[in-house]
Structure formats: C-alpha cells, structure tokens
Design goal:
single chain, 329 residues, alpha/beta, 7-stranded mixed beta sheet, two-stranded antiparallel sheet, 13 helices, 13 strands, 43% helix
C-alpha cells in the first residue's frame, strides 16, 4: 500500500444528512485495521467555518478545517453529501444551496475524483459535474433530478454509478457500498471485502446491483389492497392467476388491474413476481435451500423461471445474489 495518504474531503453544511457524513469514514477507518496499520486515507470534514454544523438529525458536528484552508492542497476524493426538505404532503425535495454548489464546483476542479452520497447528486448536477453523464441518487428524488437537469442521464436503480472520475451513490446505507467501491479501486477487492465483513454487511454489492427496493414496500391506501397483498404473501406457492386475485377481491379482472395500477403503479402479474422475488431473496440470504427448493417454495415452479425473474428485477442471478448477500454464521 505504500506510505501515500490520500486526502478525502467530506463537505459539511447545515442540514446535511448525518449518515451521509458518518458512514464513509467508518469504511475508510477500517482500512488501517485490515492492512495492519498501513497508511491509506486522511479523512477531513470541511465547512465554511470551524463552527459546529447542525445536521438534519439535529446532531452537531465539528469541521476539521475550512474550505479556505484546503487552498493549495491536492484532494484525492471529494465526497459530497446531500440534504432534503419534506413538504406538508411528505414529499421529499433535495436541496441545492447556491453557496454549497459554488464550493462543490471549486473543490471538484482540484480533486482526482468526486463522489456524491445519496441526494448529494443534486449538488453535483447543479455544479455542472453530471452534464452528459449517467448518475443515480436516492429513488425518492430521482424524478426531481431528471426534471431539473435534463442533461443528466438519471438511473434510479443502481446503488452507485461510476462515470469517469465522477461517482454517484444511492441512499441511504448505499454510502457504505460506494465507499467500499472506492477502497476496492484504490487498494483491491480483497481489502474491500474484509472491511465489508467487519461492518457486518452482506459483502460488497457491485455498482450495477439494484437498490433492491422491490415494489412490495409501498403502504396500501385501501383495505382491499392491503388484504390482497397479505393474500399474495400467504399463497406464493400456488399459481395465483389474475382470476384468483380478482375472485378474492370480489372485483372483475379489469377492475383489479386498474386498482393495482392506481395503488402500486404496476400490473398484478408484475407485483406477484416482485413478491416472489422478495421471498426468494429472503431464503437465499438466510437458508441453505437449493435453488430448486426455493423456486418451488416461492411459486416460480422451475429454477429457470427463478433465474429469469432475478435477472429482470435485480439484474443478477440467484447464485450471485446469495454469494454477495448470504448472512454469515
């Protein structure tokens, strides 16, 4: 690893998301432990002044240095966290303070690489660093990013994306995956995997991996839909045709399709596949069941059907998923 210490600067500003700031240093700090004390990174929290910065969680943080004090220093990696506001209807909006954007633009020009954490991608975009690039962010603000910055190719699915010297990460704990990817680039996959184990993560996820927010999560707004979702969860092994679901809900098949579209934004068939993939994921993570047994227990019928569903939904295979996400003993 040598004696080189790479300077990683994490930006601080009022209202910043706490985990965006604290997550990456945990990864970088473990590098020293996993390499027998060899030097790797120097992590510095930088802000406009040395006064405490109040995060969105209400926790105050002390900067290590000011942006002005970074003048003349070579920055290896600039990490840009984000901040949001939530309106009266609980809609999340990413913020991009002009002063912070200006600092991002200036510091990025002196950095070997730049990485945003979660909604920090909005700051990179406002600074012009994502123009013509592919980028990701937290799924809740991906639409906002695409609407406000049409020159950015927004992909809300991956947990992180690298496009040249610019990295963007999804939220929220994906900041750990992004940080591990940076370590892997600098010091190799083996070191990054050892750090992942120390963090009790499901091993390091590849950047193309989906955020795994399989659409069985949204809260149902009607009792009928809540009941249907429970019914699906309890009958995954069976064929569960559209007619079965419609009969259980006491509606026509056409009406059922309209309800699913309005409530969850998908067809009944797409929801059923998502629910089965979710169930298979849980078994892959927590059991030693064979793929044949998992396919049968989750209603896929055959292993080939299971594999095809995983490729469609998660852009990976069940075997690859288990290798990376299996809970260690």
């Amino acid at each position: 690893m040598g004696g080189v210490r790479r300077l990683i600067v994490i930006m601080l500003f009022d209202g910043v998301d706490l985990l965006d700031v604290t997550g990456p240093p945990e990864v970088f700090a473990l590098l020293r432990r996993e390499t027998d004390g060899a030097s790797g990174y120097e992590v510095a929290l930088a802000a406009e002044t040395l006064e405490p910065v109040t995060t969105a969680a209400g926790v105050r943080m002390l900067p290590d240095l000011t942006f002005a004090e970074l003048s003349g220093r070579a920055i290896d990696t600039l990490l840009v966290p984000g901040s949001v506001e939530v309106d009266e209807e609980r809609r999340v909006h990413a913020l991009a303070d002009p002063g912070v954007v200006a600092r991002v633009r200036t510091l990025a020009a002196r950095s070997r690489r730049v990485a945003s954490v979660c909604v920090g991608a909005h700051l990179l975009a406002a600074a012009g660093l994502l123009d013509g690039r592919r980028a990701t962010t937290h799924w809740s603000t991906a639409g906002q990013l695409a609407a406000e910055h049409p020159s950015v190719e927004v992909d809300a699915d991956p947990i992180f994306i690298r496009d040249g010297g610019v990295w963007t990460g999804a939220g929220i704990t994906a900041c750990l995956d992004l940080s591990l990817a940076l370590v892997a680039e600098d010091f190799g996959e083996a070191v990054a995997l050892r750090i992942a184990r120390q963090l009790v993560m499901y091993l390091k996820r590849p950047g193309g991996q989906s955020q795994f927010s399989v659409p069985v999560e949204p809260v149902s707004t009607t009792r009928r839909m809540a009941d249907l979702r429970h019914f699906v969860a309890e009958h995954l092994t069976g064929p569960l045709t559209l007619a079965d679901l419609a009969r259980h809900a006491h509606v026509s098949e056409r009406q059922l399709a309209r309800v699913f579209k309005a409530e969850l934004g998908m067809t009944p068939a797409a929801y059923l596949e998502a629910a089965r993939v979710e169930a298979a994921r849980n078994r892959l993570e927590t059991t030693d069941d064979t793929l044949d047994r998992i396919a049968s227990a989750c209603g896929f019928g055959t292993t080939d059907t299971l594999i095809r569903a995983f490729r469609r939904k998660l852009d990976t295979t069940p075997t690859e998923y288990r290798t990376r996400f299996r809970h260690s003993g």
